Structure prediction request, 457 residues.
Amino acid sequence: ESLCWVIDGSNLQRLMGLLASQLEPEKRLRLGTFVADPSAEAVADGDRLFQRHAALLGSTGSGKSWAVALILERAKSLAHPNLVVFDMHGEYTPLTEGDAPIARAFHIAGPGQAPDDEHALYLPWWLLNQEEMQALLLDRSEENAPNQAARLSHHVRALKHERLVADGKTELAARFTVDSPVPYDLTGLVRLLSADDAEMVPGAAGREKQGPFFGRLTRLVSRMEARISDRRYGFMFSPPTTHLAYDWLHDFAKRLLGTAPGIKVIDFSEVPSDVLPIVVGVMARVLYEIHFWTTEDKRTPVTLVCDEAHLYLPAGNAGAADLRALDSFERIAKEGRKYGISLLVISQRPSDVSRTVLSQCNNFIALRLTNDQDQAVVKRLMPDSMDGLTAALPLLDVGEALLLGDAIILPTRIRLDAPKVKPTSATKNFWTDWNSASVEEEALVAAVEAMRTQSRR
Prediction:
């Protein structure tokens, strides 16, 4: 009977619904209903959606956060879901609360961090590879930048070797590289660089002369001391002493890649904006490399949910910090599928997101897009015969989306289901609130104090 249908309008939606119903039950991911036929379920192939990267794109207020919450809610029903959400604004906190939370909450430690907070995450300096460390501490425009980079690498390697020997890891001490994540003494690093900067060496006629790095590391040392003393960077330069133990990274891997519970939300909202790309990039790189080095038959697939991706995966004019994050995510986008790690890229400005990352995404959920440059990104992904669908991009209602990619049979317009637990991203009702709500002055005082401590906790 279906072969006799006129393939247009709601009949097309019914046909797609029929074909989608043939998916194996374990692959079915219900996202909502078809706009043309609300009685038909819009079902995607969950395997294909995640294994080949996906992107969720939409202007602010179009329903992106609700769509993410819906996907996490659906994943929660599985036996062992494994997703790590990079939450830039703390809007997914409600999903981690209540008697039956969807996800486990983590946050990058802020300046006012309580020492016994089990949800706090630190990224100690020794996790940074040399490119990340240099992007964080060096000014490439300086004449002495090459000397600073060389001495930084030299001393870091020496300090890591010293630590491995002291811990009895002699086999590893003979095989490690300068980028191996091995704890080392940060104070000792500053001391060695300061010594180089002030070193005097024997000269002619028994006189002393300035050493080869005399005065050339001054700015590097000053920059390091400023970073170390700045409480905003305490999550990196002032972690608890337990984070300097050799075995700490083992526990870190279990917390973020283990399956109890499988969905984790990491709140980055208190990370200073100038180092946000490096911090997110380090987190992604470390998780990817742990997964990369896991024995193949022991890997459990992991998806990194990249909220507000345009903040750290820019399409152009990338600075040194942005480039380090781009390197990490572009490597995952290109190679992650082979090792069971994928990306769900979320952005309100797809035209500002790395072309390399988006080009590796095989599935797209496009909500309302009002900017013509952002619309063009989606239109390039659609066949010419689907111009009618892309024309609707600026007209989509909140919660409506175009779904395209190999996770669904044909590009189509759907209405996403509302999640049971709503993220804290709802648009304020300005006119209604002005008519009913009043300003709570005590809340303003609390806000000022939070601003002074640079912490919401």
